[in-house]
Amino acid sequence: MATCLCEAFFDDVAIATVQVLEYLKCEVAFPDGQTCCGQPAFNAGDWASSRRVVRHCLKVFAGEEPVVVPSGSCAAMIFHGALLEFEEEKDLEEVRQLAGRTWEVADFIVNGLGVDEWPGKFPASVAFHRSCHSRGTDSGPATLRLLESIEGLDLRPFGEAEQCCGFGGTFSVTFPSISAAMGKLKLEHALKENPDCLISGDMGCLLHLGGLAEKGGTPVPTRHVIQVLRDALRNGGLIS
Amino acid sequence: MKVQPMDQFSAELADEVRDAVYDGSASGYDKREEALFGDYPDPDLLRRTAGNIKQHTLEHLDTYLLQAEAKMRENGVQVHWAGDGDAGCEAVLRIMRDNGATRLVKSKSMATEEIHLTEFLEKHGIESLETDLGEFIVQIDKDHPSHIVKPIIHKNRGGIARSFEREGLGAYNDQPEVITRRAREYLRRKYLEAPVGLTGGNFLVAESGRLVLVTNEGNSRFCLAATDIHIAVVGIEKLLPRDRDLSLFLGLLGRSATGQQLTVYTEFISGPKAAKQPDGPKQMHVILLDNRRTEVLGTKCREILRCIRCGACLNVCPVYRQASGHAYRSVYPGPVGAVLSPLLAGNRFPELADLPKASSLCGACNEVCPVNIPIPDLLLRLRDRAKQEGVKSPGTPPLAAWSRLASQPTLWRAVMAGGKVMNHLPLEMLPVRALKDWQSARKLPKWRGGDFRRWIKKHKEAESARGGEA
Questions:
Q1: d(CA B345, CA B352)
Q2: Residue A175 is nearest to which of B7, B364, B380, comparing CB atoms?
Q3: Residue A173 in contact with residue B434, Cβ under 8 Å?
Q4: Which among A156, B91, B252, B255 could bridge A193 via Cys, Cβ 3.0 to 4.6 Å?
Q5: Which chain A residue shows the shortest CA-CA distance from B444?
Q6: Cα–Cα distance between A73 and A80 in angstroms, integer?
Q7: Domain B5-295 CATH class label
Q8: Model pTM above 0.90
Q9: In this structure, are residues A17 and A223 in contact, taking their beta carbons and an 8 Å threshold?
Q10: Cβ-contact B205, B212 below 8 angstroms
């Protein structure tokens, strides 16, 4: 599942996901009918609209294969959010079946494929923003495990790491002032450590943080974790 | 276009208040982490266990309430049932009148805030004095608490010193020691004059009928030291099945609320003064308050009734930190308040239906909750309820149209590819308020819709060409 954000703005994140999974000997299929996971409507409380989109996902991603998503938040929409909004629906079982095989990509690499060290090199300092939808899932620890094992990668922890970046999808639209204040605080903490780039497992966080940084006159390169993994492979000459 | 009231409130909040709230909450969070993770190998397991005990209690509340009532009566406690806030207030007033009492001293209690007891009693000519220092300051300022355990988190000591000066409690002095001493001197006399001490209750144990109070200032003990009558207003969700459950809950409550292993005072009250005891209140009344809790129990948001009022979710919440407690326009602020307040509002639900929206759903509240309440899920359920009840919500994008688009792949692909036109438009000029607001603080990256689909198509073609060669 490429996600609508990657489709609209961050095609390289989707490309990197394919490249990394293929390096790991996965056969990657991209169902052409895919659109969005339904999260915007779910979060806004419009569950009827959201269910329509989830039902579309059920059709597009029918089968037994694992569904891998380069976004903790879209993955959580399928394996958690959808279960809530389908509680009283007849097709709850189908949703459960899809939820059971949907993975956030770092979690899939570490806990699905059993990889716990990442080859190649990435000679840069990075600040890793733990995106909120990875709370209570295995994605956060999985990502850290991979990042820490990359040669040359200098991971820079920063203050108030447990705090949200303020994106929250439609939250950033309906609560622009609180959202921007949260984002600025997050940037302040992360940039204090002078990282070469800011990384996360969710492009939503990075769309918001990158946009705030640029507008605020302190632009910082942003990368998805999967791009870092792909670039490490490239730098190590392991893929072209 | 109207904006969300909480966002507006936050935007207009004085820096001084925001800083006080931010610093107070952030330090509360740090202390909690230190205390929990320093003392327990697996705090998460404890949180989950405590959550299960509370959930079990709620699911058998009918049994446990009757057990608690019987046990309390056996212990000599007079038990009163209050279906709603008015009944709770009336019950207190009746006890006061039956005993010819016109003044009471009270310790901190969210339940009494919830039913606006002090205002009610004052209207009926009864002096009700807050003795918790923070609540006392709130009372003399005719203000409202803005945090569940730190009611004056939004104030600074300069303001408090001015309030004390205004009330004739001494010339301006902002030293915390001086402020505390002045409050103490004033309150000591009041404790001696009042015939009735009123408290809330942190826990009520069903098997023993024991009421447990935790405080740090010792004021609740003073409230019960010289008075003849003890009235406790206790929400029906405060029950725990067994005395032994207290070891887990007291350990979690102190650590989660203030980073203390145990609060300075923990009182276990089993009834009025017994014949052999030298002193203590001769009467003890427990008012069991429903006030829509039974109604909440019947909804899918019932987990919120597990709450033990520690305030950890407020401390960690990035929205609370930016907006302050008063932004929530209700007795219970923060994440717990965003769920509980609309639920307790009954048919006034639409007035507070914006509160569950004031969250990025980051889940930090759930992560710190000592009884593991899935607060983000409950916020989402209330958003769904608001939508179903047709409550208008300012600023929400047109998601029904979006969902139709997202279920039609051909149209979706066309829109994705066509979106590139945005790269050639000055986006700030588009007549879309949401986009304008968003872009006033953030720069949107270039639209690249269609690019990935082209790449993957080529990539797959190359792959099958290679496959063909092999």
A1: 8
A2: B7
A3: yes
A4: A156
A5: A211
A6: 10
A7: alpha beta
A8: yes
A9: no
A10: yes
Tokens (6 digits) for A13: 């994140």
Reported for B156-163, long-range contacts at CB under 8 A and 24+ positions apart, including other chains, are: B156/B16, B156/B20, B163/B137
Residue of A nearest to B324 (CA): A178
Distance CA B261, CA B214 (A): 12
Most B CBs within 10 Å, among A7, A84, A135, to test the B interface: A7
DSSP string over A40-76: HHHHTT-HHHHHHHHHHHHHHT-SSS-EEES-HHHHH
Q: Where are the domains of chain B?
A: 5-295, 406-462
B364-393 tens-digit pLDDT:
999 999 999 999 999 999 999 999 999 988
B400 interfacial to chain A (CB closer than 8 Å): yes
Q: What is the ipTM of this complex?
A: 0.96
In eight-state DSSP terms, residue A112 is I
Note whether A186 and A159 are within 8 A (CB).
no
Instruction: Give the Cα separation of B186 and B188 in Å (integer).
Output: 6
**Sheet of strand A222-224, all strands in order from the earlier edge strand to the far edge:** A151-155, A121-129, A197-200, A222-224
| Chain B nearest C-alpha distance from A29 (Å) | 9
Q: What is the C-alpha separation between B206 and B243, in angstroms, rounded?
A: 8
Considering only residues 227 to 266 of chain B, which have any Cβ-Cβ distance to chain A shorter than 8 Å?
Answer: none
Whether residue B58 contacts residue B237, with contact meaning beta carbons closer than 8 Å, is answered with: yes
Chain A residues with CB under 8 Å of B36 CB are: none
Whether the Cβ atoms of residue B61 and residue B290 lie closer than 8 Å to each other = no
pLDDT tens for each residue of chain A, 240 residues long? 999 999 999 999 999 999 999 999 999 999 999 999 999 999 999 999 999 999 999 999 999 999 999 999 999 999 999 999 999 999 999 999 999 999 999 999 999 999 999 999 999 999 999 999 888 899 999 999 999 999 999 999 999 999 999 999 889 989 999 999 999 999 999 999 999 999 999 999 999 999 999 998 889 999 999 999 999 999 999 998
Q: Which amino acid is at B344?
A: L
Q: Select the residue of A56, A182, A214 nearest B443 (Cβ to Cβ).
A: A214
Identify the CA nearest to B202 among candidates B255, B147, B253, B248.
Answer: B253
Which A residues in the span 61-90 are in contact with B, Cβ-Cβ below 8 Å?
81, 84-85, 87
Q: What whole-number distance in Å separates Cα of residue B224 and Cα of residue B195? A: 9
Yes or no, beta carbons of B7 and A178 under 8 Å apart: yes
The pLDDT tens digits of the residues spanning B415-448 come to 999 888 878 876 666 656 667 777 788 888 899 9
Tell me if A52 and B404 make a contact (CB, 8 A cut-off): yes
